[in-house]
Amino acid sequence: MRPSHIFSLLLLLLAPAIQAAVLAIDYGAEFTKLSLIKPGVPFDVVLDKDSKRKISSVVGWKRDDRVFGAEAKMAATRFPDAHFPYVKPLLGSTSQHQLPLHPNPPSMTNDGVLIFPHSSAPSHISPSPSSSEEVWTPTALLAHQISYYRHLAESLIPDGTTPEPINQVIVTVPSWWDHYQRKAYKDALELQGLTCLAMIGEGTGVALNYAMTRTFPNFNLEIGEGEKEYNIIYDSGALSTTATILSFYQTSYFPTKKSKTSINTTHIEVLSVGYENVGGVLLDTEIQKILTEDFIKKSGQKDIISDKRALAKLSREANRVKHILSANQEANVAIESLFNDVDYRSKISRASLESAVESSIPLFSHPITSALASAGLTLNDINSVILFGGNTRVPLVQQSLKSALGGTDDKIAQNVNTDEAAVLGAAYYGAALSRTFKMKNLNVTERSFYDIKMGDEVIFEQGTKLGERKILTLPVPSAEDEITLEFTQSTHLISGQSTTITERNQAISKPILSVKISDIENSVKNFTNPLPVVQVTLRLDPRGYLSVANAVLTSNSTGSEETTKDAGGVAGALKGLFGSKKDKDSSDDSVPAEENPTEDEVVDTKEEKKQPKKQKIALKFKEKHTGIRPMTGEEKRTTQARLRSIATYESAKFAREEARNLLEGYLYRLSGLLSEDAENRALHDFAKKEERITLQSIVDKTMEWLGDHAETADEETLKGKRADIEKIELPIITRFKESLHRPKAIEAFQQAMFSSRSFLVEATKNNTEALENVSKQTPENPAIPPKYTEEELKDVETQMKENELWMDDLMKKQVLLEDDLTSDPVIWADDLDKKGKKLQMTVLRLINKKAPRRPKPVISSSSSSATATTSTRLANPTNHHGPSVTESTHSELPDLSEETLSSTTLANPTHKGPVLEDKTQETGDKMGTTYISKAIPTHKGPEPPKHQEL
Ligand SMILES: *[C@@H]1O[C@H](CO)[C@@H](O)[C@H](O)[C@H]1NC(C)=O
Ligand SMILES: *[C@@H]1O[C@H](CO)[C@@H](O)[C@H](O)[C@H]1NC(C)=O
Ligand SMILES: *[C@@H]1O[C@H](CO)[C@@H](O)[C@H](O)[C@H]1NC(C)=O
Ligand SMILES: *[C@@H]1O[C@H](CO)[C@@H](O)[C@H](O)[C@H]1NC(C)=O
Ligand SMILES: *[C@@H]1O[C@H](CO)[C@@H](O)[C@H](O)[C@H]1NC(C)=O
């Protein structure tokens, strides 16, 4: 199959997997960037709560409240005991960093897992930790942060859509991350119920971003002719520096012989990676060390080294000073009340910093030389060096880099967006996986940074494309019922190169996975073919860790040991989406089944077609992670429950705060209105004195109460307090609103009465005329029967009479009250509205009634038939009339369209637009609505004040 066929086929398969949003996360040791791929959301970086484009990678607590990003960083000096920065280097790791990065250093459990203390952890965390010394694993701390990232992304809602949860992510990780580290990240995502579509190298992310806007030379994969472009991504971050060498090229082919346009694919292929455990934090800690020693020398206060708050202040100042020294030769240091109320002031120069870290400077250039060596390339082959990461702006890093590039910076690519490139690249990758966006074809290939061995046998060599599989063929054990396979990871040292600690450490063989295949004996009994052997398919997951795809009992046919060359990169990642069914019954029981069936099965059936007789019996197997173990199912359940308990607390808190803010705002508004010099006089004019006093006193009391209970009162209590005051305010507000709307309502009511009267007069006249004509008609010359029945006209008359009586009576009383605004109204705008509207509806219906036609002249017969017609019409029961016509039938009347309505203008002399207002408007604001058009300039009262709610 041609490569692009595979690609498009896979995209089809993939389509259902990516429905809506995919969040790209570039999680850094110090800062994290996010980008959301979602139809309707502009493609950009996701901003945090403070509208920052980069988010501090930290979680902390301010007493009971979990905080993130800049807020968490700010809280470090006040709450150093619940401050957890730099989680990334501890994921899937046991190296307690030598750097003083963690105010609360983690301890190691008996089975080799790092775990952080959380002293005085909030009581809402459930299940509550049994000891404050062992609360959060690095994975759990990452999961906290991921919940925040997800929250930020979920609040990006395109107009007119409803919020929807995000459950798919694409993440970047250091490409040298090993089995443990990748597993730990995956666990953190799973704790939040997120599916990891792809885990790509940070350098790969930058490369994708770089490739999006460029074209590359053509290369013919089949005949190996053409050109490739080689670039180095040099990424110097907070804690590590990585150089990734990639080749970029384009392939172009015609899908069929007749095709006129070629299909072009951009290939991005990782060739090699070099890295060192050195980054910008080295400078932070060095500055902190210099400052601490200087402070002790000047003040004699040695105890500062055990004061967490003072150290947090020093660490913050060190970071500030570092940035100043990147641009200046010297920086001032100033910390108020650093320790025991002693202020600290000093100066530090770039030169003194550089000499303090001198021995580490070559480490910044080493990744480049090491990556070139393992790719077998020289600097001359390199097109350009693309910088990424904040630390590349530090002068000594730039110097070191320049020395690795032969003393010149000619090759350093200019004007490439450095800090956001990885997350944007990852987002592009997500878009490429989705069919919602039109993207260029991409083929990304990443490689294993490690040798994966079984005993001495190399299973996947360092540099193997991620996504590849390998089948191991093993003899059926003669005595036992099971086989156990142990796998390790290591790198090999490049001979002739001087190596660093990092490299030597990587070269040590470490256990990663143990696979136990069981119940073999029974399966053998069922096996009828000759030469039974056990075949285990191992997979180098596109996300970079080792797993078992399946284990079967089958016949030993020739060439049984083979490697299926699955496509790496995009294709591999796609494969990872579907995974293998059998992955599920592997290691951890609690993991939500993320992977679906299965493209493997498609492949399998094809294989079986080729060799139809080959019998295969699936074998049970169990994966166990050795070395640094990932979280167990039990740990995951506990952590997940804790995360949920925090989420519950936070949403209750949010609701509570909202209720409190509403109450607070309400109290301020009321006390403003009650104050003597209030501009808006509503509460003064319309409240009786006692009412005002009562209101004032309850407002004062509630304010005082709120002062004491703002932080503790629950949502219900807060809402209750507000309701109590509203009960007192309501009659006053009603008076005010009534007085505001009454003149308009009366005017409108009178208009309706006036129009109805005109109608009645005219209609009666017409009817009388018509009846007269009817009485004179002959069969040869029939007359038009009257349009209205007597009952219909009677109904209008009755309604008008009733209205008049009602109005006269109430108006007399209302007029007496007119000077006293504090008395409750007698006549309600709403009632006027209803009655007027009902009358108008009755009249409108009659006006719009179809006029009767002149009956056909009957030439020879008697006149009786014509009279009969008339009487039928009069009796016609389908002619609605009387009180049954209410406003509620309004919308059911077919003939009350806009046109017919405007034809009724004659009934309403002042009317300029359609008579009836939109229904929604009527219900929206009852008090302000009239049933006569708003165009009537009837309103004489004061302009409504702007405080509708009062
Ligand atoms: C991607 O490119 C590699 C060669 O670098 C090729 O072997 C593979 O088939 C391609 N995959 C797809 C899906 O095009
Ligand atoms: C593919 O690349 C060839 C050669 O670079 C170019 O001529 C052609 O226009 C490209 N096709 C598309 C569809 O971009
Ligand atoms: C399978 O057969 C080959 C050659 O026929 C033999 O060398 C190999 O040892 C056999 N493998 C097993 C596991 O029996
Ligand atoms: C062997 O075959 C029998 C009958 O088909 C079946 O019930 C049993 O589960 C099989 N055993 C194994 C280990 O596959
Ligand atoms: C009365 O008759 C005149 C002339 O036919 C007509 O224009 C008018 O609309 C009628 N009035 C009513 C209220 O039906």
3D structure, described in words:
- The protein is α+β, with helices and mostly antiparallel strands and 950 residues long.
- Among the domains are: 281-361, Alpha-Beta Complex (Actin, Chain A, domain 4); 451-631, no CATH class; 657-950, no CATH class.
- 39% of the residues lie in helices and 18% in strands.
- The chain contains 24 helices and 28 strands.
- The strands form 8 sheets. Strands 3-2-1-9-10 form a 5-stranded mixed β-sheet, sandwiched between helices.
- β20 and β21 form a beta hairpin.
- α5 (202-212) packs across α11, α6 packs across α7 (308-327) and α16 crosses α19 (715-776).
- It is extended and about 125 Å long.
- The model is unreliable at 1-18, 559-611 and 862-950 (pLDDT under 50).
- The structure holds 2-acetamido-2-deoxy-beta-D-glucopyranose (NAG) (5 copies).
- Residues 519, 522-523, 526, 617 line the site of one 2-acetamido-2-deoxy-beta-D-glucopyranose.
What descriptors fit this protein?
alpha+beta, 24 helices, binds 2-acetamido-2-deoxy-beta-D-glucopyranose, Heat_shock_70_CS, extended, Actin, Chain A, domain 4, ATPase_NBD, 5-stranded mixed beta sheet, 950 residues, 39% helix
